[in-house]
Each structure stands twice: as C-alpha cells, then as structure tokens.
Amino acid sequence: MMETRRQLVHFSGLLFVLLAQVVGGVSAGIYFFLIAATFLAYSEYVVRETKRTMGMLESLEKRMRDFVIRFERKDVKRPFSGAIWFYAGCGFTFLLFSLPEASAACAMLAVGDSVSTLVGKR
Q1: Less Cβ crowding at N or C end of the chain, within 10 Å?
Q2: In whole angstroms, what is the distance from residue 75 CA to residue 19 CA?
Q3: Domain with 104 in it
Q4: How far apart are CA 89 and CA 36, in angstroms?
C-alpha cells in the first residue's frame, strides 16, 4: 500500500506537465526548478531537523512533515530525492527542448516511473 501511495505521487507529476501547456516551455522550466529547489530546501531542513520555529509555525510544520513523510520510503537518508531529481530533470528538459518534446518526455517519466514500479511488483 505504501508503494502504491508513493507511485500515485509520482504520477501526479503529470499535472505539472499539463500546466506547462498553459504557461509555456521556459516558464515551465523555471517552475520545475523552483519546485525542485523547494523540495531540496525542505529535504535539507528535515535532515538537519532544526527547530527554529515556535508555536503555531512549529505545529503546522510538524503536520506538513508528518503528511509528506508518509509518501517517502523509510530507509532513505535524504527525503524527497526522487522529487528533486524529477523536477530538476523536467526543468532542464523544458529549457532545452521544445514544448511538445519536453511535455512528452516528462509525461513518459511520470507515468513510466509510477506504472513500472506498480506493475513490476510481485
């Protein structure tokens, strides 16, 4: 069940490919890099487990962490590394290739990654 949840999150990357159709290739590339940077920063925060927030912010961050960690494997040293690489890779793809080619590549990555794990499971 845990792996199914994780792969559904991977599959949701397809929504960002659809968003790229609206905003255009360069903007989509920038968005993908911003998302990757956000995951990278939050991953570093989770790894270091610094507690510099107080009160309500701490409570909100704990709830958010508890929610997003449910979609991560238990044995990883750095959480969200798959999301970081997915969004960074799609960011490069949208900056280097035309919108149709980049959209196809990122859609295949999102669908292929999630389906291959679910189908290949014994």
Answers
A1: C
A2: 32
A3: 2-120
A4: 9
Indicate the pTM of the whole model: 0.65
Q: CB-based burial of residue 59 (10 Å sphere; 0-12 exposed, 13-18 middle, 19+ buried)? A: exposed
> Which token pair is 25?
């290739």
Q: How many domains does the chain contain in total?
A: 1
Please tell me the distance from the alpha carbon of residue 17 to that of residue 103, in angstroms, as a whole number: 6
- CA 4 vs CA 63, 108, 120: distances in Å: 22, 18, 12
- CA-nearest of 92, 76, 83 to 110 is 83
Structure tokens, 120: 């290949």
Per-residue pLDDT of the chain (122 residues; tens, 9 = 90+): 566 776 777 777 788 888 888 998 889 899 889 988 988 888 887 777 655 555 556 777 777 777 777 777 777 777 778 888 888 999 999 999 999 999 999 999 888 887 887 777 65
